[in-house]
Fold this sequence. Notes:
Blueprint: E1 2-4, H1 14-25, E2 32-37, E3 43-49, E4 54-60, E5 77-79, H2 82-90, H3 97-100
Parallel strand pairs: 1-2
Antiparallel strand pairs: 1-5, 2-3, 3-4
Protein name: IS66 family insertion sequence element accessory protein TnpB
InterPro entries: Transposase_IS66_Orf2
Pfam families: TnpB_IS66
Amino acid sequence: MWLSAEPIDMRAGTERLLARVVQVFGVAQxxxxxxxxxxxxxxxxxxxxDGFGIWCAARRLxxxxxxxxxxxxxxxxxxxxxxxxxxxxxxxxxxxxxELSAIMRA
Length: 106
């Protein structure tokens, strides 16, 4: 799973998202997913190349925003683990998963 840090217009369809994948990641690889968010962080789109075609899914939160990296502080794309992806789509702080996985004495 790959995350594109640059925001994208959520009116973008499959073809425009695919062009953005090729621009940001160099190639759309089979069995990879590519995540995009709008500038406000209220909506995300996932583009998946399954080896035969392209799937596009959209999600928005009823309240709050998705936790998205600030583009000035990161590379244009990041790799996500399955646990990070699961947390991100729920609107949880996915970058903090390692520190949240254990409770330590103060």
